[in-house]
Specification:
The protein has 382 residues and is of the alpha/beta class. It is 27% helix and 24% strand. The protein contains 11 helices and 18 strands. The strands form 4 sheets. It has a 9-stranded mixed sheet, with helices on both faces. 47% of the residues are buried.
Length: 382
């Protein structure tokens, strides 16, 4: 029971890394001796030191003989800093409790092995799913080179995201909209289709209250570069804008949009649409760990049809739009049959004001916390 209590504290610290740790994983650490917390730390990329180092510095000499609760296996390699496993050994820590082996191939159990070889007691597996959710995007990127794809849509009870008319586009409650900002906090990039830009003229910026260390990259799927130079996307020159277009897009338009600060990325098309896996590959090269796909309808349909959605947040408002002109949350060709339709499992559901939020994982999800898979990361290594 004490282990679980202190691990919960470490996980709460790790959650403070949201928006601050990328492109590293969010990690929290609590050092405990004789039932009392002696040191705490969580990782911020800009501050370099990892959670374990911050907690050890706060604990000082009290760390000798203590237990360290760390939400991810301590690193064993040299990066921006030295190995945390070495510092734990040098400090005299007696025991380490960690939920997960690090999915990073550079670590992948080596930190645990180093600690055990030095005589420390290491327990692995406590609250692994909760810890896995915190590093969900990092784990996907470090193992595949692609970002974790999180889709989000505010919708009515009958599955519509708009009336099809210019007025009344906003469906979600204020709390539902705040939930969307919480997702932007955790993501490195947000993506929409050009139809959303033309219809809504969004800025696609992060407007939440929590501090975000890394700028949110704004990406648009725009095969023919129809994004207008007057778009509000270009108001903030400090925040990157990526326009993905076809290889045949107008050179004149490229030059005009580049002059506004946009980066133009040409990708191949297949069946009249941009190849989304190549889009994800380009984002992965830019160290985008988590991508938030906000639509519209056709974009959601394309990502689902390509089996490239890892988790989908359906924010359902208690209203019905109806009507043949109302826009469905998922567009495109649709499924040929019930058997061929994408299948989801609901991992969690939340109340957001008057809205309900469903955290749904498709069967093709690559997430380490997908309810469709039993992951090796969750197995004890005692």
């Amino acid at each position: 029971m004490d282990d679980k209590r202190f691990m919960k504290q470490a996980l709460r610290l790790a959650e403070k890394s949201a928006g601050l740790a990328s492109p590293n994983p969010g990690v929290g650490c609590v050092i405990v001796k004789n039932g009392a917390v002696a040191g705490r730390g969580f990782h911020e990329y800009a501050l370099r030191d990892h959670a374990e180092i911050l907690a050890l510095c706060e604990a000082g000499d009290v760390a000798r003989g203590a237990t360290a609760y760390v939400t991810l296996e301590p690193c064993s390699h040299y990066g921006k800093t030295g190995p945390c496993a070495d510092r734990l050994i040098q400090s005299g820590i007696r025991r380490v409790v960690t939920p997960l082996a690090d999915p990073n191939p550079k670590v992948a159990g080596r930190g645990i092995e180093k600690l055990r070889n030095a005589g420390l007691i290491v327990d692995v597996g406590l609250m692994a799913e909760e810890a896995g959710k915190i590093i969900e995007a990092f784990a996907c990127h470090v193992t595949t080179g692609l970002p974790l794809v999180t889709a989000k849509a505010g919708m009515s009870l009958d599955g519509k995201i708009g009336t099809g008319m210019p007025q009344g586009r906003r469906i979600s409650s204020p709390e539902g909209l705040d939930f969307g900002q919480c997702l932007r906090l955790k993501m490195d990039a947000v993506l929409v289709g050009v139809e959303t830009v033309l219809a809504d003229d969004p800025e696609l910026t992060y407007r939440g209250r929590a501090r975000k260390g890394r700028q949110l990259t704004r990406a648009v799927l725009d095969s023919n570069l129809r994004t207008p130079p007057t778009a509000r996307l270009f108001k903030d020159r400090k925040t990157p804008v990526l326009l993905f277009c076809s290889e045949n897009a107008s050179e004149t338009r490229k030059v005009a949009l580049q002059a506004l600060g946009a980066e133009i990325v040409s990708v191949q098309e297949h069946g009249g649409e941009l190849e989304l896996e190549k889009v994800l590959r380009e984002l992965g090269k830019r160290n985008i760990l988590g991508l938030l796909v906000e639509g519209g309808s056709r974009v959601h349909g394309s990502f689902l049809a390509s089996n490239l959605v890892d988790v989908f947040y359906f924010i359902v408002a208690p209203l019905v739009l109806g009507g043949a002109s109302a826009v469905p949350v998922v567009g495109g060709k649709g499924s040929e049959s019930i058997a061929a339709a994408p299948k989801f499992r609901i991992r969690k559901q939340y109340q957001a004001g008057t809205d309900m939020v469903f955290e749904a994982y498709p069967a093709a999800s690559r997430s380490i916390v997908s309810p469709w898979v039993t992951n090796e990361l969750y197995k004890r290594r005692n």
